[in-house]
């Protein structure tokens, strides 16, 4: 599937600000299941972007804007070809909970079994995860049940949380948006030893009535590690296994590792932010 994304972020300041320093994670990942056809990132006022990879192998663009400005616009235009990662006729069952301890020894799994900035494995979260697991001995089956639990038991409500809301608070209040649902699922999975990482990106809503949540913004979901299959995506916001309609931009322990735009500046006035995202399917 060929998908095109236009992501625009606008900052407005009531008085001039200076010394803006920013990191952007807006460049799509490339690999076996996804290839980047084109990607352009522009910033106004014009600056030079420096590119590097972070510890999670995400592409990062860094820039510094020292001169005074009252508006900052960041735009990303990407075209990506995606491929199905999962055989939906044969989902990846067969990896048992008794085999999870060996994931602790895998470098690619170990960081995603630990606590992180927005995710803490508490006794209460552990008990909830065990209740959801029930009698399941299969890792994919349990992970799917956790996804269904969040989708069916949590309320999707914009404005109920902030970008800094912790997973424990989300699990207690059972309200939030895609970022919160992803943090909750990561916490519940890690609490019972399932490697789980946070994923940011986009998806194309291919449903006839456009009923899926989060298609007109940056989206977040979860990948769990299944021995023999690798990282498999589950979207608790929409209760679905991630397919070729999804574009991966960055992966990490939680939102702090993958934020599309993060930065600082000097200034005393008020600021406002607007973000627009458009995802289109292209002819192949």
Summarize the structure in words:
There is one protein chain. By secondary structure, this protein is α+β, with helices and mostly antiparallel strands. It has 2 domains: 2-82 and 260-282, Immunoglobulin-like; 97-258, C8orf32 fold. Helix content is 18%, strand content 39%. The protein has 5 helices and 14 strands. Strands 1, 2, 3, 4, 5, 13 and 14 form a 7-stranded antiparallel beta sheet that branches. A hairpin with a 5-residue loop joins strand 3 (50-53) and strand 4 (59-65). Helix 2 (139-153) packs antiparallel against helix 4 and helix 3 crosses helix 4. The longest helix is centred in the middle third of the chain and has 15 residues, at 139-153. The mean pLDDT is 94.
CATH class of the largest domain: Alpha Beta
- State the total count of DSSP E strands: 14
Report the sheet with the most strands, covering strand number, pairing sense and barrel closure. 7 strands, antiparallel
Radius of gyration: 19 Å
Low-confidence stretches: none
Q: What is the percent of helical residues?
A: 10-25%
- Helix segment count? 5
The sequence of SSEs as H and E is EEEEEHHEHEHEEEEEHEE
Structural class: alpha+beta
CATH topology of the largest domain: C8orf32 fold
């Amino acid at each position: 599937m060929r998908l095109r994304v236009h992501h625009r972020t606008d900052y407005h300041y009531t008085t001039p600000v200076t010394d803006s320093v920013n990191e952007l994670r807006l460049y799509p990942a490339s690999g076996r299941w996804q290839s980047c056809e084109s990607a352009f990132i522009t910033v106004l006022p014009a600056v030079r972007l420096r590119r590097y990879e972070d510890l999670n192998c995400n592409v990062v663009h860094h820039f510094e804007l020292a001169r005074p400005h009252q508006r900052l616009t960041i735009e990303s235009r990407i075209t990506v070809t995606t491929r199905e990662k999962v055989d939906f006729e044969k989902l990846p069952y067969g990896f048992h909970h008794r085999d999870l301890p060996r994931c602790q020894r895998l470098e690619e799994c170990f960081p995603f079994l630990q606590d992180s900035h927005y995710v803490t494995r508490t006794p209460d979260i552990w008990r909830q995860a065990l209740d959801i697991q029930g009698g399941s001995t299969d890792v994919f089956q349990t992970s799917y049940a956790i996804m269904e639990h969040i989708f069916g038991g949590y309320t999707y409500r914009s404005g109920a949380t902030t970008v800094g809301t912790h997973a424990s608070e989300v699990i207690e209040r059972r309200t939030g948006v895609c970022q919160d649902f992803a943090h909750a699922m990561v916490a519940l999975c890690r609490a019972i030893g399932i490697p789980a990482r946070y994923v940011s990106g986009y998806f194309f809503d291919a449903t006839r009535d456009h009923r899926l949540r989060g298609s007109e913004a940056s989206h977040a979901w979860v990948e769990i590690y299944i021995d023999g299959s690798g990282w498999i995506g589950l979207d608790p916001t929409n209760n679905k296994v991630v397919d070729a309609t999804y574009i991966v931009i960055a992966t990490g322990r939680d939102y702090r590792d993958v934020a599309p735009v993060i930065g600082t500046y000097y200034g005393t006035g008020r600021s406002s932010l607007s973000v627009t995202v458009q995802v289109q399917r292209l002819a192949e």
